[in-house]
Amino acid sequence: MTHFAAIGAGFSGAVIARTLVEAGHRVTVFDARTHVAGNCHTERDPESGVMVHKYGPHIFHTDNERVWEYLNQYTEFMPYTNRVKTISGGKVYSLPINLLTINQFFGEAMSPAEARAFIEKQADLNIEDPQTFEEQALRFVGKDLYEAFFKGYTQKQWGCSPTQLPASILKRLPVRFNYDDNYFFHKYQGMPREGYTAIVEKILDHPNISVRLSTPFSRSQVKDYDHVFYSGPVDGYFNYELGRLGYRTLDFKEIRTDGDYQGCAVMNYADESVPYTRIAEHKHFSPWEEHDKTVCFAEYSRTCESGDIPYYPVRLAQEQTMLRDYIKKARAEPGVSFVGRLGTYRYLDMDVTIAEAMHLAESFLELTAKNNPVPAFFNEPI
Ligand SMILES: Cc1cc2nc3c(=O)[nH]c(=O)nc-3n(C[C@H](O)[C@H](O)[C@H](O)COP(=O)(O)OP(=O)(O)OC[C@H]3O[C@@H](n4cnc5c(N)ncnc54)[C@H](O)[C@@H]3O)c2cc1C
Question: Where does the UDP-galactopyranose mutase C-terminal domain lie (predicted)?
Answer without folding.
Answer: 148-347
